[in-house]
Inverse folding.
């Protein structure tokens, strides 16, 4: 599989797959109101006090009988008991002048437009969800496990990681935040648990495994290129419209990711076995910045690039068969300042345009680079202002180049 990636930073995506198999579309998964099982209503003011959640939960750990249940079932019951109160459903009203997604049904001025999920991040009432769930919101209503509702204010949002933070105007007693886990320690085959509100069915638990690591999702395009979300977790735990923004958990009840997208066949919409979650490592970096500053500055390299493999090298007579070929260097970017060279000759590979003749990045901080997606994931570990060392292949020899990462424009 070959991917042509247009990149000017840590977030890059574009791609083509093999000529015989179209790449599945990646769909965000908020639920339109027309699909919600409950009727819509105008969002009103929040109550001055909310009942403690722990006293009204349908489930009580003290009275659950574990007789006849196997170890995994007991773990899942205990996990749900610990985690489900901190998972909320979001009802979102958006500005009617904003551009709605293609095919979205008309809505009245006081009608709900979308629904998603979220989870409590800290004791100050901050809720983490997806950017695409709350984008353009004029009102956000949070619905708790017992059915109580309260309004929330948008604190900050980052489309390039698809993360957002809202803050409750009233935090009920008995609500404890979910801890973040170590997504860097995940292994394929590990149990994954999603809790959210698919199709408006609140506090639904689904179970699967970690199906893959290091995936890349498309993020919003900019005027000067496309970006992507790197190091994404793939899971087969069922994720459907309305799960967006809800937590993906390990068996210890730690958040290892934020459910954000599903892969569907052309023309499809519902879950077909491939879901994606923004990793907890990204949450740990981005969310505190959203809380303190309302935004997150992503490090920027400033190149377009194409993965080099054996077939690509053979096609164009390259003397190296792995790495990332630089196609273009954005003027004024960190790559331009460092003197990296872009391509000099236009060509076509598998129906897509490429620039040949530029530097080939073969390592970053002595870590071998084999693909564009991998390089994106490596850069994602750093912060604005960090200096990295790229090893490049130029004129049939390797050269090291220091590059200081700047904030993406």
């Amino acid at each position: 599989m070959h991917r042509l990636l247009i990149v000017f930073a840590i977030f890059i995506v574009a791609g083509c797959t093999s000529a015989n198999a179209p790449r599945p579309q990646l769909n965000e998964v908020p639920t339109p109101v027309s699909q919600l099982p409950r009727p819509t209503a105008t969002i009103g003011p929040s109550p001055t006090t909310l009942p403690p959640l722990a006293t009204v939960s349908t489930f009580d750990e003290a009275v659950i009988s574990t007789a006849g249940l196997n170890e995994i079932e007991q773990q899942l019951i205990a996990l749900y008991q610990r985690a489900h109160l901190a998972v909320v459903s979001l009802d979102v009203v958006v500005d009617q002048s904003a551009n709605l997604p293609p095919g979205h049904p008309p809505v009245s001025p006081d009608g709900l437009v979308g629904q998603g999920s979220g989870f409590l991040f800290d004791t100050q009432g901050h809720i983490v969800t997806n950017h695409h769930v709350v984008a353009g919101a004029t009102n956000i209503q949070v619905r708790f496990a017992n059915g109580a509702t309260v309004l929330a204010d948008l604190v900050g949002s980052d489309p390039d990681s698809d993360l957002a933070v809202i803050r409750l105007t009233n935090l009920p007693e008995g609500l404890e935040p979910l801890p973040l886990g170590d997504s860097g320690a995940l292994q394929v085959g590990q149990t994954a648990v999603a809790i959210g509100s698919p199709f408006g069915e609140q506090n639904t638990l689904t179970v699967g495994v970690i199906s893959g690591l290091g995936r890349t999702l498309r993020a919003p395009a900019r005027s000067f290129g496309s970006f992507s979300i790197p190091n994404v977790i793939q899971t087969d735990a069922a994720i459907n419209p309305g799960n967006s923004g809800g937590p993906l958990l390990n068996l210890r009840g730690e958040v290892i990711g934020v459910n954000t997208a599903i892969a569907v066949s052309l023309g499809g919409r519902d879950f077909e076995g491939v879901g994606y979650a923004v990793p907890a490592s990204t949450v740990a970096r981005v969310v505190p910045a959203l809380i303190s500053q309302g935004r997150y500055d992503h490090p920027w390299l400033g190149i377009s690039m194409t993965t080099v493999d054996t077939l690509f090298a053979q096609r164009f007579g390259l003397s190296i068969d792995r790495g990332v070929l630089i196609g273009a260097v954005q003027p004024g970017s960190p790559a331009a300042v460092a003197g990296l060279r872009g391509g000099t000759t236009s060509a076509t590979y598998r129906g897509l345009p490429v620039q040949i003749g530029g530097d080939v990045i073969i390592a970053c901080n002595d870590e071998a680079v084999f693909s564009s997606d991998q390089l994106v994931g490596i850069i994602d570990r750093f912060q604005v202002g960090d200096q990295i060392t790229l090893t490049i292949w130029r004129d049939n020899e390797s050269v090291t180049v220091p590059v200081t990462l700047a904030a993406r424009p």
Remarks:
- The mean pLDDT is 82.
